[in-house]
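As described in the Methods, two query proteins were run sequentially through the folding procedure within a single session, without resetting any intermediate state between them. The first query and its resulting structure tokens are shown here.
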Amino acid sequence: MKATPEKIKEQQAKIKKGNPTIELLGSCRIDNGIGLLSESEQSLAIKDFENSRPNLNISFFIPSSGSGSRMFGAAYTFLNQGKPDDRSIEFIEHLINSIETFAFYNKLSQDIKDDLKKGTIEIEPFLKHLLSSDGFNFGNRPKGLIPFHRYGNFIINPFQEHILQGAEVGGEKSHFHFTINERFKEDIQHSIKILRETTGIDFYFDFSIQDEKSNSLAFDDHAEPVYDNEGNIISRPAGHGALIENLDNIDSDLIFIRNIDNVQHQDHSKNSANYRKMLAGILLDFQSRVFAILKQIDNKGDYVGAVQELNAMYDMRLTPSDIVSTEKLYSLLNRPIRICGMVKNEGQPGGGPFWVMSDEGRPRRQIVEKSQISGKNAQLNMLIKSTHFNPVEIICAPKDYHGAKFDLKSFSNSDQYFIVKKDHKGIPVQFIEQPGLWNGGMYHWNTLFYEIGSECFSPVKTVLDLLKPLHRPSKSNH
């Protein structure tokens, strides 16, 4: 990649400066930054969303360029090591012993199925069949094209599952937007068209690619640029934060964001769908109150009571001086809005909900990654004692009260980048990752956190995760 001297200099300065850290004020908890609705309140929020849905333009934004090879990391270890370690042996045993449970079992040839049943399967050729281009090619395909679930004789991949489950939430007229690796565009298109023909659902879908111009440059341990054999500086995609550009191009009233590997088997997806509808209902209520206040300010009307109610209901942490200054209040409320579902912490990795100090000098909710937190004891204590984590169940309202789209890039914080260390063909290198899409990328948005059930979170990090209950048919359907 050709890089301008300005770009090299800018990223080099960030590398030299080191990883920026965020000072936490405290972790968000129930009734202190995280809302929790009673059953009757949940039902009401769901009904509000369902009543509003026909008048809304709804999109689903699903980052989907991740490779399936990560699901089979232990299989690669098994194949590449002279003497496989215990972890990879255990992985292979579990994979082989449970093979009939996986959706892709249907696609195996009868000869392979017979060998598996008799216990005469040759392990190395079988793994190569799963991973390499001579067979299923799971090692090179995107995770979204790997079969996840089985329904009778049908097998469904995550692209198809996101559409089926999204249509359940947003209605059949929903718009599905996947950010993909362009090499697999035709395969993905084909797989989605099969779903449309099979189900008759009239949904709209499209794709975008992470813009190469947003790529990060490679530096060595001394913060010097690293070049390839042709004299070009080595580059790589700058993390999912670069997708703020892709998100900014979507013109919808509501945008639901979820990761490609986080879907459930449809026998277990109803609760998850209801939680997503609930979040959307809360967001619409909050938005309508904000819009009413902004309208009153524009019309020089009395807005104080409405702001105080909003402040109390949604724990906005607005001060009396914010409320009396129409200019300050307008600036604080006239922003993109997002609501983020939070799941009780059960030891999962990933970011979490915290109170941080905003640029305006007031506490605000923020999703913070572990690597963004300083190593001070008091800060680490807040991390250790946090009760919830971010499963990436986010709904965005990207328009102002006149119906015009906000420029989302102007609400991100470029100082919240990450420094990532990787190995490139045996050379240790470091890159800048842009501010995370739901961290620094949405830093200046108005943010709400609400607790949702753990059944909304069933990511597939390794292929063995597909054996977990949320990816299996319910007992009655066996």
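Immediately afterward, the second query was submitted; its sequence and tokens are:
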Amino acid sequence: MSIAARLANLDWGRIETDLWTRGYSQTSSILSRRDCQSLVTLYKDESRFRKRVDMARHRFGVGEYKYFARPLPPIVKQLRETLYPPLATVANSWMDALNTSIRYAPTLSAFLHHCAKLGQVQPTPLLLRYEAEGYNCLHQDVYGEAVFPLQVAAFLNRPGADYTGGEFLLVEQRPRAQSSGEAVLPTQGALVIFTTQMRPVAGTRGYYRVNVRHGVSRLRSGQRFTLGIIFHDATT
């Protein structure tokens, strides 16, 4: 079954409900073990990437990640193009709830054309690698004026077998309240769809914005690779 068909078979009603109520949704394994291994193998091929970031150097954490160059690997391209339309529907409903005039194009190509007009022309899908003692500080993936409010992480290794620790973290800060967090440990090949920067939450006077950051807890052992699918492009 193609990746597009696997994604079409997801329970998108449940995913939308999860995104509204929790700000993230976790799927079953969408990528096969072969898919995951093919992406992990790419990490050593420097010709496939446009930029490498050492997290420790920038005080982002401990580990490294690489942004893909164009053309994107077929798996990455299919995931990005197929996931965008249903998530754009959710994103537009979020903008309606927050009474903003922002609207997202129905297709990824149209949205990337908008990014390009703002000077955001560099692809943002990336591979992240962590080893024992590695972690990622809480952050937001914002690369310019255009920001798509949802993004996706695909988990390429087996928790408990290939690595221990390394939970995916989501922390949200509601106005005049303490932060709340979630720790998620998906199976190999699973996706987590989550909030990029902010999401709407229902209050007594309508919806208000909640700020969200994400990161990775410290690995106790092993090695962990993750594919990040960010829909807006970057300026650099």
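Helices lie at 3-8, 12-22, 33-42, 74-97, 108-117. We note this only descriptively and draw no conclusion about the first query from it.
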